[in-house]
Specification:
Elements: H1 10-25, H2 32-35, H3 39-50, H4 63-70, E1 78-84, H5 90-99, E2 103-105, H6 113-122, E3 127-131, H7 143-152, E4 156-163, H8 166-176, H9 189-199, E5 208-211, H10 217-229, E6 236-243, E7 254-257, H11 278-285, H12 288-310, E8 315-322, H13 328-340, E9 345-350
Parallel strand pairs: 1-3, 1-4, 2-3, 4-5, 6-8, 6-9, 7-8
Amino acid sequence: MARIEPRVPVSVGRDCCVLASNMRATGCTVPRCIRLVSLKRIMWVYEICSAGSRIGDEAIGVKRVAESARSGHAALVQLVLITGLSGSGKSVALNVLEDAAYYCVDNLPVKLLPELVSFLKHENYSKVAVSIDVRSGTTLEDLPRHLDQLKREGVDARVLFLEAKTDTLVKRYSETRRRHPLSDGKQTLPESIERERDLLDPVGPLAHHIDTSDLSPNALRAWIKDFVSIDRSRITLLFESFGFKHGLPLDADLVFDVRCLPNPHYDPKLRPFTGKDDAVIAFIENDADSVRMYEEIVRFVESWLPCYIRDNRSYLTVAMGCTGGRHRSVYFAERLARHFRRGYQVLVRHRGCD
């Protein structure tokens, strides 16, 4: 048998072995790219190569890892981290990203995140999505430190936090008859949900939040696509409309109440329309108070936006609320979006009519 030089660097070989074994130990499914290479073969080749022994065709088992390592560089990774409350739609979000050619891993323990990203960089995966939830336990407190390290290594890491109102989550669990991950028979479902909120507190400030309480799955899919398509180097203004009768959206940074203005709902001819339609737009713009309200909201946002930018905010969510969320709030969200789109990245959401 001919002597061959080691083809798997120590770091790559160790990453493969440790990552796969740790994921199995914690009950996770080992990703497909790791399963393609026999774990035992990697360990055997790593041990013999590092000792300078002779090996033969067994090196074929690590061909993909070796070729990636010999290339001398790793792909720049875009990492989307999905977290939030159980039942809020994390599976829907992960499926959207999988359809968008992201390499997806569900329920990854926090402590394995750096190892997974390191391995996938060597495998030249450029888009990765990882779901992390409350089952990571106290290690969730380490997530900010891991994300800071990944960003220093050039990883474009962004965090999406999905949440919903407690009564909405209780209803969803009742419909699916699934067990909450923190349910232990000693506390009610609402108590388990509130405990989960507390455990996820360290993650909240790192993330862009989406309240899925009143969203259809199709609307959530569209919002996820918007989230991953924006340029993270600039602040994104998100204008959303909602109806106060459905409650305040949990993801709002600024809330403006426009219920004091004339309501098109009480005109039978305008009731079927929304704030996007010409007839409703004309009705609102013919009212002097509505015009003054719009101008003052613009001045307020323009005055304070530099402070949010200095605070290194990636997103600012401005919520416009009326009674039902179909007429006045929709008009204001659309018009504000048109105004600020001249100088900023802007997204628009309508909770009452999307």
